[in-house]
């Protein structure tokens, strides 16, 4: 990561994702990754019960 003129190495989490556009559109994957980023930056969100439980699968 570059901060100004200095290159800074930070911790990273290697992650691979395989997706099939025939099953789910890219907008759903984008929403999942936004939520995943929220949980990585704010792990305390996982401590309470969910606000909404989706049971329509």
Description:
InterPro entries: CAT-like_dom_sf. This protein is an alpha+beta fold. It is built from 1 helix and 2 strands; from the N terminus they run ββα. It has one domain (2-46). β1 and β2 form a beta hairpin. The termini are far apart.
Write a brief caption for the model.
The protein contains one helix and two strands, in the order E-E-H. By secondary structure, the chain is of the alpha+beta class. The chain has one domain (2-46).
H/E element string?
EEH
Tally of separate domains: 1
Kindly state the number of beta strands.
2
What class would the helix/strand composition place it in? alpha+beta
Tally of helical runs: 1
Biggest beta sheet summary: 2 strands, antiparallel
Low-confidence spans: none
What distance separates the N and C termini?
Answer: 40 Å
> Which percent bin holds the helix content?
25-40%
> What strand line-up does the widest sheet have?
1-2
Describe the oligomeric state of these chains in a short phrase: single chain
Tell me what portion of residues adopts beta-strand conformation: 5-15%
